[in-house]
């Protein structure tokens, strides 16, 4: 910016911090403002102070500043809100799962509860037996439990029906949770 008009480099000083915050970091693929705020900077018109009686000197300064801003390239917006949740492929043939606690835990505490028996699964949700109560949970909260065949795991639920026809009628109320609820 200052190289195009070396004699008036002081006129570009207000744009230097703005340029630093909005400059694209090639290694990260985003600007410093996007890292801090989550989106590119968009300055409102009210950001600039307007005077009631413009002088000839301030008019040329504003014109120079406008020309400088027009010559800048815009940084394309980056949408970080649509992140992909990792879903383990091992959950396709699982019998028991661990459930993430979704709470801040003190150091050296287990982040997962379980193991719990998996009762049903769909493309995005699992129904598990958690101490006799059925819960429907999002896949993003689950982790496969590797159970030894001889290990002692929680027994069958009291609410589990004996045949498939009565499964719908005998199902207790379920709780649906996802990773977005904290």
UniProtKB/TrEMBL annotation:
Top-rank lineage group of the source organism: Eukaryota
Region (Disordered): 150-182
Cross-referenced PANTHER family: RETROVIRUS-RELATED POL POLYPROTEIN FROM TRANSPOSON 412-LIKE PROTEIN (PTHR38681:SF1), RETROVIRUS-RELATED POL POLYPROTEIN FROM TRANSPOSON 412-LIKE PROTEIN-RELATED (PTHR38681)
Designated name of the protein: Uncharacterized protein
Lineage, highest ranks first: Eukaryota, Metazoa, Ecdysozoa, Arthropoda, Crustacea
């Amino acid at each position: 910016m200052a190289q195009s008009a070396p004699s008036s480099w002081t006129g570009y000083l207000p744009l230097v911090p703005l340029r630093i915050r909005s400059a694209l970091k090639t290694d990260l693929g985003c600007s410093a403002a996007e890292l801090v705020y989550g989106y590119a900077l968009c300055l409102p018109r009210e950001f600039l102070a307007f005077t009631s009686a413009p002088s000839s000197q301030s008019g040329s300064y504003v014109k120079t500043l406008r020309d400088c801003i027009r010559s800048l390239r815009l940084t394309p917006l980056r949408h970080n809100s649509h992140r992909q949740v990792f879903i383990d492929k091992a959950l396709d043939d699982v019998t028991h799962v661990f459930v993430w606690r979704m709470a801040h835990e003190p150091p050296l505490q287990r982040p997962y509860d379980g193991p719990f028996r998996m009762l049903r699964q769909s493309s995005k949700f699992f129904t598990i037996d958690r101490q006799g109560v059925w819960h429907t949970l999002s896949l993003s909260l689950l982790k496969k439990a590797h159970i030894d065949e001889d290990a002692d795991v929680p027994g069958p639920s009291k609410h589990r029906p004996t045949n498939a026809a009565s499964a719908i009628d005998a199902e207790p109320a379920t709780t649906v949770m996802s990773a977005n609820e904290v």
